[in-house]
Amino acid sequence: MIDLHTHILPAVDDGPADVETALAMARDGVERGLTVVAATPHFLNPITWADIQEKVKELRQHLAQAQIPLELVPGAELMLDTDLFQLEPGEIPTYGAAGRFCLIEFPMGYLPMYTDEVLFDLQTKGITPIIAHPERYAAVMENPSMVFGWLEQGCLVQVNTGSILGRFGREVAAAAEILLTHDWAQFVASDGHSMRRRPLDLPEAHTALVKLLGAQRARELVEDNPREMLAGSFAVKRQPREYVKKRRLFPFWR
Q1: What is the pTM (predicted TM-score) of this model?
Q2: What kind and span of H or E run contains 168?
Q3: Adjacency order of strands within the sheet including 101-105
Q4: Which long-range contacts (CB under 8 A, 24 or more apart) does 59-67 make?
Q5: Residue 249 lies in a domain
Q6: What is the domain extent for residue 167?
Q7: Measuring CA to CA, which residue among 251, 226, 248 is closest to residue 3?
Q8: What residue ranges in the chain does DSSP mark as E strands?
Q9: Residues 190-228 pLDDT 10s
């Protein structure tokens, strides 16, 4: 399995405090069934894209020395901000430094009025935005159909394992279920930060995905789609379907 959203780099943002903890996370992930992990720390000043790539090289060396067979891919979690307008394409963190796909998150409590402009600007630079955990955004929980609009604009969507497993509450779990059952999500990832509170638990979520969507769709979300995206050959296989709001939603994880 391939985990596209993790904060595994030590002493960079709010991930592990030291190399030992990062290695413990990696070892645990491999034991659970992970083969590839993208290091996606928050892209915030004073951290540069060059800094992140250097940290990835360092952690790769530690993984090799510890004989942990986990492939580490550079990336970052961008915060939606007009500062991105000022960056050249090569300065914007993308998966594998390939200049094709980036991970971007929005403020949890509201959607800025410049949201669509930032997404469009990234696309004009040849970068496809992958929107991180939209099921956790207040605006999406209120109106899930706005995710359908982002997909129509050419963006992609990543859902968190914690949302699927009910760790962020019933409302978030219900929103995640809508995204997954309407083919609005192309990727599921852990957003792992630590060993216990937010581990690299993609394999655990995979079990829930098989129950909800079937084995083939679950595999697409945690293995096939991530692999194709990292290779630069990803194309949407399933067309998103419009959502009609029901009176009451029951999270599938109960």
Answers
A1: 0.94
A2: none
A3: 42-43, 77-79, 101-105, 128-132, 156-160, 187-189
A4: 59/8, 59/9, 59/10, 59/19, 59/22, 62/19, 62/22, 62/23, 63/23, 63/26, 66/23, 66/26, 66/27
A5: no
A6: 2-231
A7: 226
A8: 2-6, 36-39, 42-43, 71-74, 77-79, 101-105, 128-132, 156-160, 187-189
A9: 999 999 889 999 999 999 999 999 999 999 999 999 999
